[in-house]
Amino acid sequence: MFKNWSKGDFIFYFASIILIAVTGIIFKAYWVSFLVSAVGITAGVIHMKANKYSYILYIIQISLYAYVSWRNRFIGEAVLAAFYLLPLYIYSAIRWIRLGNKEKGDAQIFKITKKQIIILAVACVAVTGGYGYVLSLLKSNLPYANALGTFLSVAAGYLSAKRVKEQWLFWISYSLIFSGIWISTLGSDTSNVTLILQNIPYLYINISGLIKWNKLYKEAHAEV
User: Distances from the Cα of 113 to the Cαs of 64, 168, 174, 190, 218, in angstroms?
Assistant: First the structure.
């Protein structure tokens, strides 16, 4: 799990966990929200390293996140987590581990295709508009922002399963939408504050992941 971690990676990781833990204690955050953040940060760091076991942690994180989302009436997030991301992460874990056992060194990285770009652009409009309307009928909080977040997470998860390096652009966008969604829950209730603060390390992980995967892609193709 900690293979190829630098000193800087360890400092960042433990600083992020301490930040989330201390903030959670101060604001009396819901303990499951803390677990979501801690497991998610751990999974994100090892996924950034293209580690094939990152999805095992993602499976744990997304299961907990589905519960927290449902608890806060973010129906779109809960449905996304339980019925799309969880099965996708299980599939990805099996696929990555099997392929990783056949490949030597880092996992092979791919570039997004024109066909994938067109499909994702059409899906963005359809999911944000259509799913957002359905969520509004279900009285979900922030239905269209929720729907856009759903699309971004679905697209990122799909590209991640395909090991496409541009997935990180979608994860960055999702982190920003995700922050806005959970900021809207703040007020007298601070139980979910860790879900907001976790986006500080998430943004770092996603940007670093984009840089790392671009580097891996260039190195692999330079050898061809």
Answer: 33, 15, 21, 42, 16
Q: Is residue 2 part of a domain?
A: no
| Residue whose token pair is 């201390």 | 22
Could you list the residue range(s) of the whole structural domain that residue 105 is in? 7-222
Pair 58, 84: CB distance under 8 Å: no
Tokens of 17: 């966990």
Question: What is the tens place of the pLDDT at every residue in 85-139?
Answer: 899 889 888 877 776 655 555 567 899 999 999 999 999 999 999 989 998 998 8
The per-residue DSSP string of 47-97 comes to HHTT-TTHHHHHHHHHHHHHHHHHHTT-HHHHHHIIIIIHHHHHHHHHHHH
Residue 22 within a domain: yes
The whole model's pTM is what? Answer: 0.76
Count of the separate structural domains present in the chain: 1
